[in-house]
From TrEMBL:
Pfam families: MR_MLE_C. The lineage of its organism: Bacteria, Pseudomonadati, Pseudomonadota, Betaproteobacteria, Rhodocyclales. It comes from the Bacteria. Coiled coil: none annotated. SUPFAM superfamilies: Enolase C-terminal domain-like, Enolase N-terminal domain-like. This is L-alanine-DL-glutamate epimerase-like enolase superfamily enzyme. Residues 162-259 form the Mandelate racemase/muconate lactonizing enzyme C-terminal domain.
Amino acid sequence: MRIVDIREVTRPISSPIRNAYIDFSKMTLSLVAVVTDVIRDGKPVVGYGFNSNGRYGQGSLIRERFRPRILEAAPDSLLDESGNNLDPHQVWACMMSNEKPGGHGERSVAVGTVDMAIWDAVAKIEGKPLYQLLAERYGNGTPKREVFVYAAGGYYWPGQDLQALKNEMQGYLDRGYKVVKKKIGGGSLADDLKRIEAVLSILPAGCKLAVDANGRFDLKTAVEYAKVLSQYDLFWYEEAGDPLDYALQAELANHYQGPMATGENLFSMQDARNLIRYGGMRADRDWLQFDCALSYGLVEYLRTLDMLKEHGWSPSRCIPHGGHQMSLAIAAGLGLGGNESYPDLFQPFGGFPDGVQVKDSIVTLPELPGIGFEGKADLYAEMKALGEA
Ligand SMILES: [Mg+2]
């Protein structure tokens, strides 16, 4: 078998919203189709991937470096031992040939996007859901199809008042979520507290609020917020300072006893390891949000999970950023703690297969071959236009 073509296109996922750092009015992503010559159900198997929100499309890197490396490689060098399927680790090594270590930036997004499509193709060729394949190859053999999800929203947007914020959050509760998240750091501390209290005022018992500063704060501000936020029983306090400022994160742990979360902007196993080594994160309560679609894909994420194990961390402390089905499959296959979800944003790429309902903040993944994109009609329509034209 061989890869016949790799197609990519940049798609808009713009929204009139902002967090403490960026607005999403010009946000894009790369959509990739890996076309193989393997026939299933009468047509070639095509694997699909895309990068999650926040880092823009990566078309030029894919076109100039990663696509040609794969297509120019000897086809057999990309296969597993059976010779009947791709080996994602071999494909990854091929993409990363002639790449220096360190400097993990946009290329980790480009590689992660192609890597997602490779895994989708591999599971489709085996005729099973990716979560099943992952549980068999790297997990305990039995996937857990029920996955915790929380609703990420509470962005800053034009004309938003406290009532509109409450209405937004009520909408998530009405759709079955028990944990909701809102942004902080995009206004003054006093304004943020009014917004937090407005949300808390509508949360029923058993529901929780998480807050996310998107890396906005210096140490002084992060600690000021920590002291005030300590009065609430929050689900977590996310990404207070710059993602690479491990000393800030470690110091913050001295001022905040509740759960902290971070990691969505760490794009390699090495960066994740530095967080674990130097960031003061606590394996008994804190949360890790590394997103494979932004950080060299699942091949690298497997290395990150191994690293976490060596440092005494359970995969159940990982709740990835991004709201895509790839991380849902990893969560179900390898026992992560759950996945982010954006009920009203970044469509059609985010979300769940059609018909999947959130109940008590849990979704149950259907049994679809691959990652499951074919089960989401609006998303699959875009994919099919690229991969099966
Ligand atoms: Mg975040």
